[in-house]
Amino acid sequence: MRTDIDPGELGHGRFYKVLTSVVVPRPIAWVSTRSAAGVDNLAPHSFFTVSCVDPPMVQFTSVGKKDSLRNATETGEFVVCLASESMFERINATGTNFPAEISEFAEVGLTAEPSATVEPPRVKESPVALECRLEQALELGDSTVVIGRVLHAAIDADVFETDARGHSLPAIERLRPLARLGRNEWSTIGKVLDITRIPYEEWPGHYSRED
């Protein structure tokens, strides 16, 4: 038996809680921006993903008109930093609704590191920073999808690991990213499963409803 829910009948506020409880886990974009007045802002956004490979683009969604959205659209720049497990409480603290003239970097005790290609600073304590130029801001209802072209990636050298095939890439166990769940719940990486995609030519043909 299933529970049927009509978003229109439930209302957007209550259905938002349902939606964020089932679209899980969600990676977190720790977004750094700088206002036109020169104030640095930092906030977590859990509607975040890759939007294009070539050219490389990432996106985050601002629910409502938040400082990250205003700064990114006014200046055309932002930085996405990795939300790592060691920064859990500070990441949550940057979600506080500070006035626009107050910098979360200073309030939360984080180091604003100069970026290589954009004006907004990187979070020095974060192992990964993706410096972005605004590509498009797409308004959808009460939210705005902010898409940025990645101009530069700054990644700590000690998170790289060389695999059996000789590929040197950031290792999930060293990045230790956080994700958002429903309610006030967050998650760590937990158990990591490793499996390769099956080419059609090697399809085993043994999967069925009875398996």
UniProtKB/TrEMBL annotation:
InterPro entries: Flavin_Rdtase-like_dom (IPR002563), Split_barrel_FMN-bd (IPR012349). Residues 21-168 form the Flavin reductase like domain. Pfam families: Flavin_Reduct. The keyword Flavoprotein applies. Transmembrane segments: none annotated. Belongs to the flavoredoxin family. This is Flavin reductase. The lineage of its organism: Bacteria, Bacillati, Actinomycetota, Actinomycetes, Pseudonocardiales.
